[in-house]
Please model this.
Amino acid sequence: MSVVVGLVYTFAAVKLKVGTLSQPGPGLYPLFVGSLMFLAGLIGMIEVRSKKDQAEVAWPQGAALWRIIVVMGGCITYVIIMPHLGHLIAAGLVSLVTLRAMGEFRWTTSIAIAVGIALGSYLLFSIILNIPFPREIWSR
Model:
């Protein structure tokens, strides 16, 4: 599955301006992530196929399955809402929902971590690496 997702992600990233290593564009990071995802899936697939002793796969159930669904849904939701709300709000909301679904932190801690993730990723990409996020729809 990660082979297919990696390929789709990589092809979507190629449509964005990649730029160069000295002047990266918004497509450079997704291209890197998609390529790594594809490669990891391919290596995993080769490894599984090469084993002679196949073990039974134990799929997650109950709360573990719910957490996986929330994380996957969060990734999809981010892609859908980011062009409308912008990175800061979308990343903060998706991070908060994901952290709450994991159930490891109180509300106040989850909010603080979500704000930190949103601001930290914005600082890293927009300020330090000078890679602009796509603009929100209402600011075009």
